Records
---
Amino acid sequence: MRHTGIVSQIAPCAAAPAAAQGAAQGAAPQGGWLARTIARIVPVVRRIIGVPDYDTYVRHMAVRHPSEAPLSERDFAEERMTAKYSKPGQRCC
């Protein structure tokens, strides 16, 4: 039996940063279990910290409100930040 060493066990994890970037952009998870796990965690963390997700918004508008034009990415970001910070008591600092 040939021993492959620790490098062969670590190499599949090299795809994790790419999977995290893909998850942040809404791409389908690929790769091993670590890449799939990161791809599932990244959108949750983004929602928790309040990062607006324009791609999700555009998909929602296409499915739920097809007759309405979605906001531009810049207008969407401005609207989300205004909504987030205009309410007293909504900030931690």
---
Amino acid sequence: MLMAKFRISILINNLLNQNNSISRTISDVAVTDVFTNVLTRYGMITFTYIIGNFKQPEPQQQQPWMMGRPPGGGGRTW
């Protein structure tokens, strides 16, 4: 029962280190290579704890004579 209240998640981004930002611009007079720093490999561990189990209200049982009628009486207002 206690283990159902905890959840542990592990996330690792860029595991293979393939997130590179390289750009090449070619013009009539020059070739320009631009290397930009990007977010490298990182990991994240998430711990989640469920605070409580809120009880759902039990549905009220309707009397047979109330079946199909809207709540609130449904009388005429003239």
---
Amino acid sequence: MAELFAKCDPMTLQANERKGGGASSRDLAGALGCENFAARVWTFGPGHEMAYHRHREQEELYQLLAGGPQQVQIGDELIAVQDGEWLRLPKDTPRRIVNHSDREATWLTLGAPRGTGVTDGIRLDPETGQEIPRT
């Protein structure tokens, strides 16, 4: 018989810091055994920024859980986000979460389809918007 449900406390999951330091995330979807979408809880300290990127396949939803107001760079624009608000980001939209405040911020990100993991994300130069090859 298939599993009827899965449950976890994201605060008990290992926080993985991004390469080079900065924001950390907890893989909620992996812990729950999700097969068709990604879900992560992110913690951004003051001054932390997500890599500027877009996706090949994955559409994303971002929700600011705590620490607002915060900002998301979408293309050339900085969008203010308050606690509890959601953003939908189509796959080809350049974006990154930025914390220019003096507070820690917690975000929930959801993405579907799950894609090919981190290689679904295409890093972009924030100044030019040009793709940065993976090394």
---
Amino acid sequence: MSPLRREMEKRRLAAAADLRAGMSVLRVSRKYLVSRISVYRWLWAMEKGQQLAARRACGRKRKLDRDRIADLLVAENLTAREIAAAIEARCGVRYDPDHISRVRKQMREGLGLAGIGILARRRKGGAR
């Protein structure tokens, strides 16, 4: 599960606890910076007995795992188009350059500061 999904799940579960404690929908929506409609959806799901836990991501599964993509995204001076060509040449998987930009951004956000160190070590040929 991605860090973003984990964070969203924590927020939903905390909001559910506040709703059970009697906090109004408006206050919950302001506290967690979500729309009232989202809070009502959570409330209706709770009333039906449905889980608020994160579900599996929908859509097609990745063709390459994150580690393999990270190894290919390490080069800072390559354009998204050049990275897409390298992925296709090395792995036989075709990626659109627009998608490469999104994956790059997700990797930076998902890895955080620790990830920057990991990528720097990989660039230098260090351990891990």
